[in-house]
Known about the structure:
single chain; alpha/beta; Rossmann fold
Amino acid sequence: MVDPTAFGGAELSFSWGDHICTIYEDYDQQMTVMLPFMSQGLQAGQRCVWVSSPASAQRFREALAGIGSDLPTLEASGQLVIVNEIGFYVLDGLFRPDRTLALGRTLLLDGQRKGYPTMRIAAEASWLPDYCVDVATWEGYEFAVTQRIEAAPVVAVCQYPARRFSGEAILAAFRTHPIVIMGETVHHNPFFSPLVPSASGRPV
């Protein structure tokens, strides 16, 4: 069990192996949810990985600095890792799920070698509509994440800016995450059903 985290003011005790989805409307709402999640992990001596666009990464750094985090020390030690979303998800213009899953495991093992036995990872999905990834492929990837981290010392949060996605893509997110944060409200997800695949090959 991980210590409770104040997701948007709501205390939620979660376990290693949990796969969480947050759906937000704007940057302020995103940081209300994600800044406590990441800063509490850093305070607890856990590896924290942030996957996003460079612009979002800069806003995240500024938010951490605003609460007194020592970013140069955190990044130099390898406790805080900030990764470009395109490099994490895309190779030669294509989304390659197996490669991304392998990179996630590499980040965990590298952190453990550096003395961080557990990991929080927060990854934005804002890049998806620009690369025409179909809903079925993405849902399969999210299902694989749920399976892969179930027994791992990892908590993963997938971040969806609501205005970037179709309703079908949001439904796929609901089906593959046991916990969903809508805005600033935490829900144990009654729609979680990863064994029901999406029938659509349309882009997210």
